[in-house]
Amino acid sequence: MDELQEQSAVILTIDDEQAIRESFHLYLEDYGYTVIEAENGQAGIALFESQKPDLVLVDLRMPEVDGLQVLAHVVSNSPDTPIIVVSGTGVIDDVIEALHLGAWDYMLKPLQDLSVLLHAVRKNLDRSRLTLENRAYQEHLELEVQKRTEELRLANDEMLATNNRLLLSEKKYRSIFESLTDVYFQVDLQGRLEEISPSISSNLEYQRENMLGTRLYDFFAEPERYESMLDRLKQNGSVTDFEVLLLDGSGLERPCAVTAAHEVHADGTGRIYGVFRDITERKQAEAKIEYQAYHDSLTNLPNRRLLLDRLELALHRSRRHGHEGALLLIDLDRFKTINDSLGHSVGDQLLCEIALRLISVLREEDTVARIGGDEFVVLLADVGHDTQATARRAEGVAEKIRHNLSLPIRIKDHELYITPSIGITLFPMQHEDAGAVLRHGDTAMYQAKAAGRNTVRFFLPGMQEEADQRLGMEKDLRLAISRNQLKLFFQAQIDAEGAVCGAEALLRWEHPEYGLITPDRFIPVAEETGLILPIGEWVLQTACELITKWSNSELSDALRHIAVNVSPWQFRQPNFPVQVERILARTKADPGRLGLELTEGVVIDNVADTVDKMDSFKMLGVKISIDDFGTGYSSLSYLKKLPLDILKIDRSFVEDVTEDESNAAIVETIISMASHLGLEVIAEGVETQEQLDFLHSSGCRRFQGYYFTRPLPVEQFEAFVSNSINEKSFVAITANPDVDELHR
Ligand code: C2E
Ligand code: CA
Ligand code: CA
User: Residue limits of the GGDEF domain (predicted)?
Assistant: First the structure.
């Protein structure tokens, strides 16, 4: 203890002997202690409580409250305060008891040497200080331990929480892993599977457990694909959507897309991990799209695109090997009419049947394609080295097609007859590409159509010019009306007495470059482009103007009936009857003299609408005739339902009525049935006396044809009619009664 602390220590001395108190007091003060005195135990305890001395000296023997009592008080109230008992030598037992009770030290009276006192005071103060210091240190230690313990506890809690989180996230990833639809996999650098997700069972039908440890390589259908995947992984570190064929549990190949990464550590270990996905459905969809892009959805035949591809290939090969090939362009005659009249579902079925018939005619290496509504193409590749032989073979195929297609086709309740027009072109010619070959085929096909349909024509170089004209035609046709290039010709109709009884208006186009163009060539173009509507209106207007003119002329009696051809497109206009009525009113033409010629197809199209419109015309007094009768697919019975006036027997029947017995029978049936229904019959295309005789003897009473007159421009026609009225000299219909006999 240093001087200062020693001096500041307060010492309480309790003794009933004043001398002792004073001697202690004086002595200890000399050493810097503060000394307080109490003369008995009671006062000592009070002073102890009020002054809190650092050390107590107490005499054991005192009256009333003795030293042991003071000792007991101090020990129990302040055990850290050193207390030294002072005792007479005769009462050593007291000292022993005091030490038992908790006295720190003792001194025996009388004190010979007061330095004993000083020594005891110092020693016990030191001990007290050490005890206190020790206790403080102890307490500090305890605090430290407590703090550490708390820290540890917190750290532990934190660790537990982290652990929990890890467990949760592990659980989460495991459940993701287990519910993956794609397959997660992981292989070591030897390619052995270390991990694979359970989805492998739904993807490729393997058990996960059986796959672990096996080689990924063994599941590849194409080993070289595995190698190239590895190469890429090594080069780029990863692959994305790498398509491979994997073998499934039943050994079937399944297209899959692999996305994987290659991981190599510094110590040379590593792995490959990633996902793959079964892309069977995607592949199928792609294949379907690819298929659809190259095929016609109705017939499943190759479409124009695929045809051009194959044709290009065939051209290339032909040039290399000196082979020749042929292309046949097949267009169905009058298909549009069937489609427009019987409805698209019948039309579609018909096209499918045609497709089947075409396929049946060909070798496997030939291609049949559908490149448009009713346009089919047959590609005969590598036919031979010799042009003549190639041409013969192509023609043979074309004839076979023509024959096959001409057999009747039954669809629903309809028996349909279809004929094709076929254009053939041989290739290679010069430097033409696939597109040019197709155009040549097209040109030849139009030639076949122009030659009267149901015909085969070869492409000849000069034809192309004409084909180009056709393209130009559409452009020119738009201007034809405004430039006054359309003309109406008239072909007279003759009655049983040989007199003119009416006429048919037939359209012509006077083209400034190409001369007179017949309707067969431009009406289809007009229908395709919609120009048929203004053109049809012009025809009606012009015909009605002439009806008015002729009614007021000497031709009035002869021209009782003027027939105008009406395109299905015109007739289907909802306001067509109104349009006709307006034209009649505007031109002041007598409705009773106007006839409308409709084709069979238009009539069947929509019977209810047709009947409605026909009724409106009947009310107006306009006559309706069915044109080209007999060529169609319709039954005669439905005609009863229609308010018709006239049937026109198609010229194809009239043409060989004298040679073909079945045609003759058809004509007779038509005539007798018509008379049964109260319909008039006109035979068209009458070219010979024999035909006329037969028709007349069968009961037909009106005729039209080159035998009497060709269609003529208005002026010539008027001259022709007025001539016939005045001369009555050109026909003698029943000139030879024996002929009648012959045909009965
Ligand atoms: P269509 O209604 O069958 O007309 C009869 C066709 O037969 C006419 O041909 C006529 O010139 C021809 N012809 C007349 N008598 C004979 C004959 O004895 N022998 C032969 N071989 N042919 C004969 P054209 O004028 O070339 O008309 C062809 C078709 O064009 C017509 O066939 C008709 O469907 C259509 N057409 C004509 N004018 C019009 C019109 O103004 N509007 C519409 N929409 N079509 C028309
Ligand atoms: Ca006609
Ligand atoms: Ca006709």
Answer: 323-461
* 105 bridge partner residues: 84
253-273 burial, b at 16+ Cβ within 10 Å, e below that, comes to ebbbbbebebeeeeeeeebbe
Query: Which-ligand-closest: CA of 491?
Result: 1
Any atom of ligand 1 within 6 Å of the Cβ of 705: yes
Whether 212 and 356 share a structural domain? no
- The per-residue pLDDT for range 397-421, each reduced to its tens digit, is 999 999 999 888 998 888 888 889 9
Burial (0-12, 13-18, 19+ Cβ within 10 Å), 404: middle
What's the CA-to-centroid distance between 683 and ligand 3, angstroms? 9
158 CB-contact burial (10 Å; exposed 0-12 / middle 13-18 / buried 19+): exposed
Q: Is the CB of 563 under 6 A from ligand 1?
A: no
The string of pLDDT tens digits covering residues 482-496 is 899 999 999 999 999
Q: What is the mean pLDDT of the chain?
A: 88
How many angstroms is it from 566 CA to the middle of ligand 3? 11
Say whether pLDDT at 76 is over 80: yes
Domain of residue 710, CATH code? 3.20.20.450
Please give the helix or strand (H or E) that residue 665 lies within, else none.
Answer: helix 661-676
Model confidence at 729, pLDDT cuts 50, 70, 90, reads low
Q: Is 367 part of any domain? A: yes
In this structure, which ligand is nearest to the CA of 625? 2
137 is a domain residue: no
Residue 666 forms part of a structural domain = no
Q: Does residue 625's CB lie within 6 angstroms of at least one atom of ligand 1?
A: no
What pLDDT score does 544 carry? 98
| pLDDT the model gives residue 365 | 87
305 Cβ contact list (under 8 Å, min separation 6): 293, 294
> Which residues are found with C-beta within 5 Å of the ion, ligand 3?
627-628
Does 520 sit in the ligand 1 pocket, CB within 6 Å?
yes
518 lines ligand 1 (CB under 6 A): yes
My answer on whether 341 and 256 are in the same domain is no
pLDDT tens by residue, 663-694: 898 899 889 988 888 999 999 999 999 999 99
Q: Which of 5-9, 134-138, 443-447, 587-591 has the highest mean pLDDT?
A: 587-591
Same domain, 238 and 105: no
- Give the whole-angstrom CA distance, residue 308 versus residue 595: 48
Give, using CA atoms, the residue closest to atom 13 of ligand 1: 685
Residue whose CA is closest, atom 11 of ligand 1? Answer: 711
Instruction: Name the pTM for this structure.
Output: 0.47
CB 443 within 8 A of CB 329: no
Q: Is the CB of 519 under 6 A from ligand 1?
A: yes
pLDDT band (50, 70, 90) for residue 471: low
Domain boundary among 71, 104, 132: 132
CA-nearest residue for atom 30, ligand 1, is 519
Residues 6+ apart with CB under 8 A from 118: 27, 28, 31
Residue 378 and residue 486 share a domain: no
Is 397 part of any domain?
yes
CATH number for the domain including 113?
A: 3.40.50.2300
Locate the ligand 1 atom nearest the alpha carbon of residue 628 and give its number: 3
Residues 421 and 515 in one domain: no
Q: Is 688 in the pocket of ligand 1 (CB under 6 A)?
A: no
Collapsing DSSP to helix, strand or coil, 190 comes out as coil
Ligand index nearest the alpha carbon of residue 507: 1
Q: What is the largest CA-CA distance in the chain?
A: 197
350 and 265, same structural domain?
no
